[in-house]
Design a protein that fits this description.
Helix content is 39%, strand content 0%. The chain is built from two helices and no strands. The longest helix is centred in the middle third of the chain and has 18 residues. The model has no long low-confidence stretch (mean pLDDT 78).
Length: 57
């Protein structure tokens, strides 16, 4: 987790499986409330599909 100045706030490691996603969301939400910050998620496409953005317009 980083803030808008790219300062590291926390590191969260989970397994990449649906059963872990709730754990991630709860921890991120808790930290955001504690710090009084809005949540913005950045997701990375790990499937390696080139041209994905152009197909999704």
């Amino acid at each position: 987790m980083v803030n808008c100045w790219n300062e590291k706030l926390d590191v969260i490691v989970i397994e990449n499986k649906p059963s872990e996603f709730n754990k991630l969301a709860k921890r991120v939400n808790k930290m955001a409330v504690k710090l009084g910050l809005p949540l913005i998620y950045g997701l990375e496409n790990t499937n390696g599909y080139s041209g994905w953005d152009s197909r999704c317009k």
